[in-house]
Amino acid sequence: MSHTETHAEHIDEEHDHPSDLKYVKIAIVLAAITAAEVVTFYVEDELGALLAPILIVMMIVKFGIVAAEFMHLRYDSNLLTRVFVAGIVLAVGVYIAAMTTFHYFSS
Amino acid sequence: MTTSTTTEHVGAAHPTTAPGHVTSTGLSNEKLSMWLFLGSECLLFGGLISTFLLYRNVDVELAVGDLYDIPFTSVSSFVLLMSSLTMVLAVSAIKRGNGRQTRTWLLTTALLGASFVAGQVYEFTVFYREGLGYTTNVQSSAFYTLTGFHGVHVSIGIIMLLSMFVLSLKGRIGPERHEALEIVGLYWHFVDVVWIVIFTIVYLIR
């Protein structure tokens, strides 16, 4: 098998996207996580300090599933993932810089 | 010689690259550009979310958090989440060459998006009637700017979806040009993931 054939097959594999049924299953999982998020609103007193970490984990899981499966990052080139993650890292950097600035320099 | 053969194969095997349009990355420039744009959009929304968080705990007479209707916003969030499903089904249908299904899913996605925007307009109206205007306090300004910017993004997405619907109706996009719809889909999913973050950070964590 030549290098060329291997490369072409690799590209084909990258674009082997999920079936419609799998998309529906993914949406059901996302809906279930959203329902769990809403439930936390009604039991926030019981959850106490755990509320924020639980919600943030669920948010990250939902974000990851949509980006990986619906936006096809899991099946596309890693370059696209790097471009998107770079934006997210910079955004988190902006948040940390803003919070730090206001923490130290607010009157 | 080996290099040129490889790039020709990449162009042929890569369904998102136009025939004869070989790029140095092996990816279509349009798709890469959309991802770069979305990366920059992360910064925009990162700045807006940071601003809201800075002013969320400021002592004000009328706080935004006192007016939230979580069950209502949860339904809106669910609607937007499901519009991501209908969007991928539209992309899947166009790849199969099923124009009718593509248009059905596109229209469904646009309608779900419009329902979300309508819900946001309703929420803003209720808040305004309760006395919370854009300039009432810094917190309300940050809230309306963040959620308003997101609403504008959804509205632009709806226009893009309806444009795709019309193009499909005229037979100007099909399986051979599915990348155009895939790129619109990327934008749509992005507004969905931004809302996932806003819903949790702005509405649920208080």
What does this structure look like?
The complex is a heterodimer of chains A (about 110) and B (about 210). By secondary structure, chain A is mostly helical. Chain A folds into two domains: about 60 residues; about 30 residues. Helices cover about 80% and strands about 0% of the residues of chain A. In chain A, helix 2 packs antiparallel against helix 4. The N terminus of chain A is likely disordered. With about 210 residues, chain B is mainly α. Chain B has a single domain, classed as Four Helix Bundle (Hemerythrin (Met), subunit A) (Up-down Bundle). Chain B has six helices and no strands. In chain B, helix 4 packs antiparallel against helix 5. The longest helix of chain B is centred in the C-terminal third of the chain and has 32 residues. The N terminus of chain B is likely disordered. Chains A and B meet through helix 1, helix 2, helix 4 and helix 5 of A and helix 1, helix 2, helix 3 and helix 6 of B.
| Tally of separate domains of chain A | 2
What's the CATH architecture of chain B? Answer: Up-down Bundle
Q: Would you identify the regions of chain A where 5 or more consecutive residues have pLDDT less than 50?
A: 1-14
Order of helices and strands of chain A: HHHHH
Oligomer: heterodimer
Q: Report on the biggest sheet of chain B.
A: none
Number of alpha- plus pi-helical segments of chain B: 6
Cα(first) to Cα(last) distance of chain B is 62 Å
Q: Could you tell me the mean pLDDT of chain B? A: 89
Number of strands of chain B: 0
Global structural class of chain B: mainly alpha
Classify the fold: give the CATH topology of chain B.
Four Helix Bundle (Hemerythrin (Met), subunit A)
Number of structural domains of chain B: 1
Number of helices of chain A: 5
> Which structural class do you get from the secondary structure elements of chain A?
mainly alpha
Helical amount among residues of chain A, as a percent range?
Answer: over 70%
Radius of gyration computed on alpha carbons of chain B? 20 Å
- Which blocks of ≥5 consecutive residues of chain B have pLDDT under 50? 1-20
